[in-house]
Design brief:
The complex is a heterodimer. Chain A is 36% helix and 19% strand. A 10-stranded mixed β-sheet of chain A has the order 3-2-4-7-1-8-12-11-9-10, sandwiched between helices. Chain A has a two-stranded antiparallel ribbon with strand order 5-6. Chain A contains 13 helices and 12 strands. The longest helix of chain A is centred in the middle third of the chain and has 16 residues, at 141-156. Chain A has 2 domains: 3-118 and 210-232, Peroxisomal Thiolase, Chain A, domain 1 (3-Layer(aba) Sandwich), CATH 3.40.47; 129-208 and 235-382, Thiolase/Chalcone synthase (Peroxisomal Thiolase, Chain A, domain 1), CATH 3.40.47.10. The relative contact order of chain A is 0.20. Chain A is of the alpha/beta class. The model of chain A has no long low-confidence stretch (mean pLDDT 97). Chain B has 2 domains: 7-50, no CATH class; 54-124, OB fold (Dihydrolipoamide Acetyltransferase, E2P) (Beta Barrel), CATH 2.40.50. Chain B is mainly beta. Chain B has a 5-stranded antiparallel β-sheet. Chain B has a two-stranded antiparallel ribbon with strand order 1-2. Chain B has 2 helices and 7 strands, in the order H-E-E-E-H-E-E-E-E. Chain B is globular. The chains are: A alpha/beta, B mainly beta. Chain A binds chain B through residues 119-121, 123-124, 127, 131-134, 136-140, 142-144, 146-148, 150-151, 154, 195-201, 245-248, 252, and chain B through 7, 11, 32-33, 58-71, 73, 75-76, 78-80, 88-92, 98, 102-103, 118-119. Strand 5 (196-199) of chain A pairs antiparallel with strand 3 of chain B, so a sheet runs across the interface. The complex binds zinc ion. Zinc ion is lined by residues 24, 26-27, 29, 38, 40-41, 43 of chain B.
Chain lengths: 383, 128
């Protein structure tokens, strides 16, 4: 075991009109602190904040913003960045801080307020995560994932119906999650008839533009029982990179960084992923849930779409993927997503996930990525 | 030819009608994206090498929602193309729809900077 997570919290995800990331963070933080009444905020040694972009609120220095909002000044409070992987990078930074012995208790925060800007501006802010030649030539992020999808379809025979099934499943899960951005069930026909964003990906293949925040408290394992009897444990973690531009990869539909991040996290955890019953993976686009499930080894390379076809990734399927609704339905406030995944796993491993509770879940995987699977952060959890 | 090995230098060549990418004299690697050091061997002994104006479609998509700069072009088709040397370029396929394209199709690469365009384009030569 590397560290314990003694508490977590998450704001309601969605289009949160009139709320800035300050209030969204406060919502997540208060829920988190209510779970651990014995924790005095003065015991928090440092704060790491993941946020994707300064474009949405014209704000950098999110470390300071978070710290001052809940009276943690003058503690060290640092923003980390890795596009949509910022949240998991914040958690990773907090874990490394605690493991180094620098602090006993560290707060990890993820935050993003995206809906204040138009879709054009959000599209542009996300394009900043691609490589200059891709940006100059007008390759949007949905189109980059679409090109992975087209290659996967061509080589392995996955279909737009398979992609649609991922959306349908995640919307069903989202309908069981009272904090999800999208809580409406949809049909395959709804997905296929939704407007094209970047062919073959349609609107319902894409995660929504959301506002939200999620937090987790990382604690030295020896001290965890002082605050809770039901901490969850981080057993392994890893991060890996790929080329910034998709075009520089020989195999477009193989997320190599994700495969490496999973293998290395398992090595540290001294287990393999067959024990994992729950995986929160980065389904920013439906195709990516399929690709990441291959990288994690839940399916062989080129066979990820067969999992969804055969219903094996539903809640209480062989491997429950995105029981929270995933980015697709829970919502995708970019910098918050990595910690929103952890929040779901925190609830699931404690048996507090309500209608979407996965039974007999002892181990879980979180896979958060930024850019075009260009930086991937994995965490393996146990009870 | 541009003397700065960079994306800026690449587009200076494009503006003069040339399609060249930095090529490592030490290990023969093509340096993409264009920059001043070979990531393979760390040599800075580079030259601008002409690349073929012909390539094949590695993958593609048709964009219907874009940023402010490209929204007026929608729908437009983007692609990753591999030249005969194995150099890959992302770019726009002119006058194409996703419906008519297949992975493996051959395209020509034309250099043009009309109407504030990105500098080079792909045109379908033949369907595979
Ligand atoms: Zn070299």
């Amino acid at each position: 075991m590397l560290v314990s997570i003694i508490s977590a919290g998450m704001s309601k995800m969605g289009k949160r009109d009139n709320l800035s990331s300050r209030e969204l963070f406060a919502e997540a933080y208060l829920e988190c602190m209510q779970r651990v009444p014995n924790l005095d905020r003065k015991e928090i040694g440092a704060v790491y904040v993941g946020s994707q972009s300064e474009i949405y609120e014209h704000q950098i220095m999110y470390g300071n913003m978070v710290a001052e909002t809940v009276g943690l000044v003058p503690k060290a409070a640092i923003r980390v960045e890795g596009c949509a992987a910022a949240g998991a990078i914040a958690l990773r930074s907090a874990i490394i801080d605690v493991m180094s012995g620098l602090h006993d208790i560290v707060l990890a925060v993820g935050i993003e307020k995206m809906t204040a800007q138009s879709t054009e501006i959000v599209t542009d802010a996300l394009m900043a995560a691609s490589e200059p030649l891709e940006q100059i030539n007008g390759l949007t992020f949905p189109s980059i994932y679409a090109m992975m999808a087209v290659e996967h379809m061509h080589r392995y025979g996955s279909t737009i119906e398979d992609f649609a099934k991922v959306a349908v499943k995640n919307h069903l899960n989202g309908s069981l999650n009272p904090k999800a951005h999208l809580q409406k069930q949809i049909s395959i026909a709804d997905v296929l008839s939704s407007k094209v964003v970047a062919w073959p990906l349609k609107l319902y293949d894409c995660s929504p533009i959301s506002d939200g925040s999620a937090v987790a408290v990382v604690c030295k394992p020896e001290l965890a029982t002082k605050y809770t009897d039901s901490a969850i444990q981080v057993l392994g973690m890893a991060a890996a990179t790929d080329t910034l531009g998709l075009y520089n990869r020989k195999d477009l539909s193989w997320p190599n960084a994700a495969a490496i991040a999973c293998t290395e996290a398992c090595k540290i955890a001294k287990m393999d992923l067959t024990k994992v019953k729950i995986a929160e993976v980065h389904d920013a686009f439906t195709i990516n849930e399929i690709l990441l499930s291959e990288a994690a080894g839940f399916a062989e390379k080129g066979k990820g779409h067969l999992l969804i076809r055969e219903g094996e990734t539903s809640i209480n399927g062989k491997i429950s993927i995105n029981p929270s609704g995933g980015l697709k339905a829970r919502g995708h406030p970019t910098g918050a997503t990595g910690l929103a995944q952890v929040y779901e796993i925190f609830l699931q491993l404690r048996g507090e996930a309500g209608k979407r509770q996965v039974s007999q879940a002892d181990y879980a995987l979180a896979l958060n990525e930024g850019g075009s699977d260009a930086v991937v952060v994995s965490h393996v959890f146990g009870r | 030819m541009a003397d700065n090995f960079s994306i800026k230098g690449f587009y200076e060549n494009v503006a003069n009608g040339g399609l060249r990418v930095p090529h490592c004299r030490n290990c023969q690697n093509y340096v993409m994206p264009p920059t001043s050091i070979c990531a393979n061997c760390l040599s800075t002994d580079l030259e601008w090498a002409k690349i073929s104006r012909k390539g094949r479609v590695v993958s593609f998509s048709e964009i219907h929602v874009s940023n402010k700069k490209f929204q007026r072009r929608t729908p437009y088709v983007v692609s990753i193309v591999e030249t005969e040397e194995g150099v890959r370029l992302p770019g726009i396929i002119k006058d194409a729809t996703a419906r008519e394209l297949r992975i493996g199709d051959t395209v020509s690469i034309s250099v043009s900077s009309e109407d504030g365009s990105p500098g080079y384009f792909f045109n379908i030569l033949k369907n595979s």
